[in-house]
Amino acid sequence: MRVRTEDEFHKPYQEIARNTFGKLLDRMQFNVIGQENLQFLRNPEQTARETAIFAFFPHTTHVDSPVVRWAIPADLRINLIYPAAADYWYKGGLIGYVMGVMSSLAVPNFPMQRGSGSTSGIYESLDIAQNFLQRYSLVMSFEGTRSNLPNDRRQFHTGGAELAIRSGRPIIPVALVGLEQVLPKGRALPSFRENGEKRIVKVSFGKAIEAPVAAGNRSRLRKDFTEHIREESIKLCLEAREV
């Protein structure tokens, strides 16, 4: 897998395209909650840039990723990068190339193997992601793919938890509310209005969840931490609906 250089992610024309799409999202009633929980990422007393793993939930549409980007304050937005499913967005060939370019105009991303990939490919992707975490905050779905399941029936993969344990970076849970019908599976273009009214969308940033220290049974630690993140994500969604 080719490792892309940093100057490929935030070129001026890419940022213009991403911000233009972000302004389209303002055609919805866009409510952001919990931005104060991101303050530690801009702590001026830190000698090195602080980074984290944003875990958004639920994953229902391709619009989820740019919505999270647009909800993050502009001064932190430039420090984001997204793992993108290599088997979907970077398939190879002309179609794969076009899809990769188009996806990078929505959010800065790099190809990452998910559960259906080879074990060696998955570990290589984790190594690449860990390296990016030294400079960037990652934004990802622990579900790994879009789903129409109720929130309490959705399952998380353990790769994100493993990445947090390896890197020592905290997890910031991100609840998404109201995006289910914006761009569901099978629809080519997003729908920002419902019955002539702006769709109401909420993005809620929870408090950072510190990664546990790697000790003992790594598999059990990874699974338990994943389940903890899942429970906190479901809880955050319920709280966001009440605001």
UniProtKB/TrEMBL annotation:
Q: SMART domains, from UniProt?
A: PlsC
Q: Where is the Phospholipid/glycerol acyltransferase domain?
A: 52-179
Task: Cite the entry's keywords alphabetically.
Answer: Acyltransferase, Transferase
Family annotation (InterPro entries):
Plipid/glycerol_acylTrfase (IPR002123)
- Which residue ranges does UniProt annotate as crossing the membrane? none
> Carries keyword Acyltransferase?
yes
Drop me one GO molecular function for this one.
Answer: acyltransferase activity
Q: Which CDD domains match?
A: LPLAT_AGPAT-like
Q: What is this protein called?
A: Acyltransferase
